Amino acid sequence: MPNQLAPGVHRIATGRGTNAFLVDGEDGMTLVDVGWSSAPTAIDTALTELRRSLRDIRRIVITHAHPDHVRGLARIRELTGAAVLIHGADADWLRLGRVPAGGRSSRLPAAMDRLPVTSWTPVDPDAVLGDGDEVTAGLRVIHTPGHSAGHIALLHEPSRTVLVGDALFLRFGRMSMGPAGGSQDPAARPHGLGRLPVDVAAVGFSHNDPLLGGRTEVYQEYIETVGVR
């Protein structure tokens, strides 16, 4: 069952601890991230529960080209006919079908990137995004490099909902940037966080549950402490 973070913004659990998001717009729906290869089924089910269909998705925005976000992308693109958008710095990764050498800062995640299960069907994006771009009315790109060079977050301006991708993780009530070894450039992450808005009403994470209402104070305090502006 999809969860509403704010009017027009829905979270879909596409796998165990993995989320995608649907954002309503006057020109159709935007899907933010996909998930593993099983994700298209979960997305289809969620749309049915919202009394919508896959063909209502007009575009797919990818926060970054890692397998747990894009392994189901080729299939969902086929089913929806939607345009695929990603930051220019991650576009070649998406076309390659795997995280390339140099895409992680430690050996174990890099070794895992060479396994068949972490590759994906290469996808050529329809457009590339940059910092400050408006994907659709009221949905703004925030470039947050570090986890990957082209990692982005998205701000739904009408509701002040921020979708942070893998720039941030919330586990057991504690905020973090996640393991450094899984990132391309860990030292860049605080500068990326410094680009995020502090005044938000909801925070959607690619992994685990969102923060809503007064609970966003955890996010706000972390950004103000760790983010480099």
Question: How would you describe the overall organization of this protein?
Answer:
The chain is an alpha/beta fold and 229 residues long. It is built from seven helices and 15 strands. It has helices spanning 39-49, 67-70, 73-80, 88-96, 107-112, 189-193, 217-226, and strands at residues 3-6, 9-15, 18-23, 29-32, 57-62, 83-87, 127-129, 134-136, 139-143, 152-156, 161-163, 169-171, 174-176, 202-204, 211-212. The strands form three sheets. A seven-stranded mixed sheet has the order 1-2-3-4-5-6-7. A six-stranded mixed sheet has the order 8-9-10-11-14-15, with no helix packed on it. The longest helix has 11 residues, at 39-49. The model has no long low-confidence stretch (mean pLDDT 97).
Please give the structural blueprint.
Layout: E1 3-6, E2 9-15, E3 18-23, E4 29-32, H1 39-49, E5 57-62, H2 67-70, H3 73-80, E6 83-87, H4 88-96, H5 107-112, E7 127-129, E8 134-136, E9 139-143, E10 152-156, E11 161-163, E12 169-171, E13 174-176, H6 189-193, E14 202-204, E15 211-212, H7 217-226
Parallel strand pairs: 4-5, 5-6, 6-7, 11-14
Antiparallel strand pairs: 1-2, 2-3, 3-4, 8-9, 9-10, 10-11, 12-13, 14-15
| Major sheet strand order | 1-2-3-4-5-6-7
Q: What number is the mean pLDDT?
A: 97
Span between N and C termini? 38 Å
DSSP helical segment count: 7
Measured on Cα atoms, how large is the radius of gyration?
16 Å
Q: Structural class of the helix and strand makeup? A: alpha/beta
Biggest sheet details: 7 strands, mixed
Encode the helix/strand succession as letters.
EEEEHEHHEHHEEEEEEEHEEH
Unreliable stretches, pLDDT < 50, 5 or more residues?
A: none
Strand content: 25-35%
Oligomer: single chain
Count of β-strands? 15
How much helix is in the residues?
10-25%
Instruction: Give the overall shape, derived from the CA principal axes.
Output: globular
